[in-house]
Design goal:
Layout: E1 6-10, H1 14-26, E2 30-34, H2 37-46, E3 51-55, H3 63-73, E4 78-83, H4 88-96, E5 101-104, H5 109-134
Parallel strand pairs: 1-2, 1-3, 3-4, 4-5
Helix pairs in contact: 2-3
Length: 141
């Protein structure tokens, strides 16, 4: 990987956010965390992230509404939903809205790190494909 992913953690539980930020930073990721969907959308207006870890159930603006807006603001950002409440309907909605994956809380750290890395790789590959098609499909070199 050319660089480590820049990750935004969005969860209304402060302790969970802080712990996750600490753990992912130890895995070599650049991590910022916020407590609401509204804060995340304001942050994403100003700064790009590779991957957003987003809680499904939050007061004020839930994860699905936040996911839909993230994809409008930053369509290339990969979003992984974290939830303590499994639901087949929510999983379908997440995929339909462009979410990368759906993981249950608590999730083993190694599994989460692998998902983040895979989402980051997908984003990098998509960017590479876009630059190739912008260059007329001809590789320079």
């Amino acid at each position: 990987m050319p660089e480590s992913p820049k990750v935004l953690v969005v969860d209304d539980e402060a302790r969970f956010r802080a712990n996750l930020q600490k753990i992912l930073t130890l895995h070599g990721m650049t991590v910022h965390s916020l407590g609401s969907g509204r804060e995340a959308l304001e942050e994403l207006q100003e700064h790009a992230y590779d991957v957003v870890l987003l809680d499904l159930r939050m007061p004020e603006m839930d994860g699905l509404a936040t996911l839909a807006r993230i994809k409008e603001i930053r369509p290339d950002t990969e979003v992984i939903i974290l939830t303590g409440h499994a639901s087949l309907d929510a999983a379908r909605d997440i995929i339909k809205l462009g979410g990368y994956d759906y993981l249950m809380k608590p999730c083993p750290v190694e599994e989460l790190a692998l998902k983040i890395d895979a989402a980051f790789e997908r984003k990098l590959q998509r960017e590479k494909n876009k630059s190739r098609s912008a260059a007329g499909g001809v590789e320079k070199g």
